[in-house]
């Protein structure tokens, strides 16, 4: 049936170039407008960070800060305690990225290069965890961390943040290590390398995947709200930036410009990490599709 | 690929939490209450911390999400097969 339904190949036209150019003329302005609408809230936040308290309200939707005010950053950093939150966030994001990286690299390596009973089941279970809502494992994690005596400590938050299966990363690493030529492993074995030594030889080859994992996990943890909120309920000075933002919301006042300045402060490091790993990142994703 | 993206987007959309806490706190009334926020409220926010009740809700939620995802995947796979058969 499928064969009969296929259209005769002679009737297929190549798309005419001129018509395509016309369509671009219509589509491009539309796309530009849509992306401006999409980017506007972000641009507004950036500009509000430089406005005065009064200016933020009188300027309305305007993007040019007038008069200019740099006091917001000082207020966010010192008064609102963003210096503390900033350090906490760096510690959490770095710590859990390192744990997640080690864990998923080892797991993906073993799944890709070894055949053992239950391997396929394990693989399927890891894929399945992609679809489990984070909130539904939060309470068991909480109770576990509590019994370990790590509640309201930095280590507790890091462990909770890297407590998932990291399914996406494991899949990426498995796909990569599966496609490495067997000769490399044979050569390593001939030279007498054991499990850990072979792994240490192969890991640097996976640099693009490592970049993907670092960017994804770092950004995810940097913006994570649920875990730091729940695990530091009794210790407000251990909160991260995302949770710290809540403190701008007083009962009857809202420090809009300070809030915007805080946003800008918390955005810069993420941008830096992305820029540093960016070139590897694109390459890594391109390779992941093949596997 | 498109299937996986759809499924992941659905699961992500199902557990909206941060937006609810920061913007509406479930209000006005209970108009924007989500399951995640309900679980958080039951288990962590007030003095009798009801872990058991929260866990039950969480388990139910996970099962529902999983059913949703499997159903969606089955439909998408069926549509894909139809499309291949009739070459649309």
Verbal overview:
The complex is a heterodimer of chains A (291) and B (88). Chain A has 291 residues and is mostly helical. Chain A has helices at residues 2-5, 17-48, 53-58, 71-79, 82-113, 119-128, 138-147, 154-161, 167-178, 182-190, 195-202, 207-223, 226-231, 241-244, 256-290. Chain A is built from 15 helices and no strands. The mean pLDDT of chain A is 82. In chain A, helix 9 runs antiparallel to helix 12 (207-223). Chain B is elongated and about 60 Å long. In chain B, helix 1 (2-14) runs antiparallel to helix 4 and helix 3 packs antiparallel against helix 4. Chain B has one domain (2-86). With 88 residues, chain B is an all-alpha fold. Chain B contains 4 helices and no strands. The longest helix of chain B has 36 residues, at 51-86. Chains A and B meet through helix 7 and helix 13 of A and helix 1, helix 2, helix 3 and helix 4 of B.
Describe the structure using short key phrases.
heterodimer; A: 291 residues; mainly alpha; 69% helix; B: 88 residues; 76% helix
- Spell the H/E element sequence of chain A: HHHHHHHHHHHHHHH
Largest sheet of chain B: none
Structural class computed from helices and strand pairing of chain A: mainly alpha
Number of helices of chain B: 4
Summarize the structure.
The complex is a heterodimer of chains A (291) and B (88). Chain A is mainly alpha-helical.
Topology:
The complex is a heterodimer of chains A (291) and B (88).
Chain A lengths: L1 H4 L11 H32 L4 H6 L12 H9 L2 H32 L5 H10 L9 H10 L6 H8 L5 H12 L3 H9 L4 H8 L4 H17 L2 H6 L9 H4 L11 H35 L1
Chain B lengths: L1 H13 L3 H7 L10 H11 L5 H36 L2
């Amino acid at each position: 049936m499928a064969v009969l339904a296929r259209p005769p190949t002679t009737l297929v036209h190549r798309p005419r170039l001129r018509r395509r150019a016309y369509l671009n003329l219509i589509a491009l302005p539309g796309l530009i407008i849509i992306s401006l609408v999409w980017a506007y809230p972000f641009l507004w936040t950036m500009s509000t960070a430089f406005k005065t308290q009064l200016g933020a309200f009188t300027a309305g939707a305007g993007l040019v800060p007038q008069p200019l005010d740099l006091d917001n950053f000082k207020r966010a950093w010192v008064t609102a305690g963003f210096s503390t939150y900033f350090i906490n966030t760096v510690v959490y994001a770095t710590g859990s990225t390192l744990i997640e990286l080690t864990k998923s690299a080892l797991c993906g390596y073993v799944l890709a290069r070894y055949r053992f009973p239950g391997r396929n089941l394990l693989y399927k279970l890891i894929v399945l965890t992609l679809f489990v809502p984070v909130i539904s494992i939060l309470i068991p994690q909480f109770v576990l961390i509590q019994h370990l005596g790590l509640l309201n400590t930095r280590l507790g938050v890091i462990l909770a943040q890297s407590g998932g299966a990291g399914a996406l990363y494991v899949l990426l690493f498995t796909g990569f290590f599966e496609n490495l030529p067997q000769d490399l492993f044979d050569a390593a074995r001939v030279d007498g390398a054991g499990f850990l030594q072979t792994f240490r030889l192969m890991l640097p080859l996976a640099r693009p995947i490592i970049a993907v994992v670092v960017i994804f996990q770092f950004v995810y943890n940097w913006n994570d709200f649920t875990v730091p909120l729940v695990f530091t309920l009794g210790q407000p000075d251990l909160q991260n930036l995302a949770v710290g933002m809540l403190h701008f919301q007083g009962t009857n006042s809202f420090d809009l410009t300070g809030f915007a300045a805080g946003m800008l402060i918390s955005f810069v490091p993420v941008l830096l990490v992305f820029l540093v790993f960016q070139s590897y990142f694109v390459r890594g994703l391109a390779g992941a599709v093949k596997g | 690929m498109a299937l996986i993206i759809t499924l992941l987007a659905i699961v992500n959309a199902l557990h909206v939490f941060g937006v609810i806490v920061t913007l509406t706190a479930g209000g006005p009334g209970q108009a924007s209450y989500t399951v995640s926020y309900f679980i958080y409220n039951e288990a962590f926010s007030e003095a009798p911390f009801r872990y058991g009740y929260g866990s039950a809700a969480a388990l139910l939620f996970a099962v529902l999400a999983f059913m949703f995802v499997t159903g969606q995947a089955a439909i998408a796979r069926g549509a894909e097969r139809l499309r291949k058969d009739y070459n649309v």
